[in-house]
Design brief:
Length: 576
Amino acid sequence: VGVPRCGASLHELNKALRIELNANANCVWQIQRNANQTIRLIFSYFKFAPSSSCKTESITIYDGPSTKSPVLGQVCNDTDAVPVLQSSSDSLTFLITTNSVAFTRNFFVFYYFFSPEKKVENCGGQLTGPNGTFTSPNYPKPYPEFTYCVWHIQTAKNSKINLRFQDFFLELDQNCQFDFTAVYDGLTTNTGLIGKVCGRAQPTLESSSNVMTVVLSTDYANSYRGFSAQYTSTPLPGPVEPNTFLTCSSDRMKIVLSKSYLASLGYNETHLQLNDPSCHPVVTGSVIFSFPLASCGTTKKDDGQSITYTNIISLSATGGIITRQKSIQIIAKCKMENNSTVEAIYITKNNIIQNTTSVGRYNVSISFYDSDSFSKPVLQSPYYVDLNQTLFAQVSLHSSDPNLLVFVDTCIASPQLDFGSLTYDLIRSGCNKDDTVVTYPPLEHYGRFKFNAFRFLQSFPSVYLQCDILICDSNNANSRCTEGCISRQKRAISSYMWKTNTVVGPIRLKRDLRSADHSESLAKADAEETPNLQQYSFYTLSFVVLISNIIIVVAVILKYHIKCQAGYGYQKIQSS
């Protein structure tokens, strides 16, 4: 086994390489031989720096004599397979690059030239039906060298496959670098590795669906009797809806999982953990994670137009049977953008993503205060003020995330609650448009400004304020919240994380209050005088009736007296 430090030109028919590299490596190995044969290259063991990505650290394989040849494949820290690559000619190149992290990388790779037209008996094939058996080539005799066999197993739909090795004897190695059997969950060999085994073992492996792939790879030495395997299939349980939901408020994230859904995945509440394992769920009829946005390992991402909070529930497998359940994650995201919160849950299982979404929002309010100390809010509504009185307004963000900043972008006044065509600008794009407006520097979750009661109130009984509020990441020194007043041209390229508006009012003049009080006093006085007037009218009417009766009585008496006088003094004398 060769141990080249950094790159080499290789011409042997076959060779095994044990490679050890440190930080900032950029090494090229070129394999070439005038053999008119194909090259099979196998990376049976690789260990990159922890947490490295394909962009910073990888093995790139080229189908030809240089790194300018077509790319055949790439191997990275997250490669979920035992990479086996074949050239289309008699030359092949691979490049290993490492990042700047101080760490010793280890790789084991071997290659050999072979003729594709040469077939090995009983090496791979298609297996169908509910159950079956297969063996390695020559079993129970030693398997041949430089062998690469692939068996594809497919059973009925809505079933899963259980694979059991009744006899198993391959070359023993701690990392299974030389001879090995690899089992994949699916019909391909480039992802979905369930397990890689060697030595003396009788493993049992299980697929998540009705397809499975089994690979046997051997090198040039130490052949043993191989294996005898049996597979069976069992029906999958009926589909269980991912009974999960997520709610995002201004300061908390709440994830609810049903026990029945967890059970359908093969888990219970003891298998779950957040990014921060110290944050435990509350278990009742459901499993509930509820925590502040800025805790439990929640990450925050600012993309220039929104803020996204993300946390991951990981489900860890237990038991002796090797399955792919270990790959299940529930990813919860709260995305604050454009006056709403997009809430999403992603359940990842075997590279399938299911998700549900709903909507919420940040909690923002605006209030008036009695002074620039902003300690005592004005609770009365309507708020009666004097003309040119200084008014103090504060916008408040109710959130548990300490790394947010509030900025008052625009404030307009209108006598109409629907803010129709008649409006007056106090603040526009962070710029003071009224001479009396003074804005205070941003203070964490508060945006503050003051202004004088204006002449709108001389023509209209009430005035309302509507303010557009921007919320930014306080760790971003170049966010819109720190720019202050900007022009229209510059505003086009400015960014903010979240935007909303809030309304306060009505504001009314105190003279209207005094007018209302005066009218109320008059009405009260009128109400008090009304009984007196009614009593006076009653007495007057009684007096008039009495006088009228007296006059009538006097008139009757006088008429009778006159009649009596006429009878006695004026008697007609009859003639004789």
